[in-house]
Amino acid sequence: MSVKAIVAKILRDELTPLGIRSLTVQESERIAAHIFERIIDLELELEARDFASMSRDRD
């Protein structure tokens, strides 16, 4: 089972008690993939900030 599928399953399991039962497997996997994309974007942004901060500190 892929990490994306595991996250999608957790997402469905967490939303079901809240009354959201219409989320399909494909929809939850698409949401999980989007979450991973956003995490990667945030990691890259944080790395860029750290790099910029280190460059300023050197000057």
Question: What report would you give on this structure?
Answer:
The chain is mainly α and 59 residues long. The chain is built from 2 helices and no strands. The protein has helices at 3-15, 25-58. Helix 1 packs across helix 2. The mean pLDDT is 90.
Keywords for this structure?
0% strand; elongated; mainly alpha; 59 residues
- Uncertain residue ranges: none
Biggest sheet features? none
Task: Give the overall pLDDT as a whole number.
Answer: 90
| Strand element count | 0
Gap between N and C termini, in Å?
Answer: 48 Å
List the helices and strands in order. Answer: HH
Radius of gyration: 17 Å
The amount of beta strand, in percent, is under 5%
Shape: elongated
Structural class, by secondary structure, is mainly alpha
Helix count equals 2
- Overall helicity: over 70%
Write the topology of this structure.
Elements: H1 3-15, H2 25-58
Provide a short characterization of the protein structure.
The protein is 80% helix and 0% strand. The chain has helices spanning 3-15, 25-58.
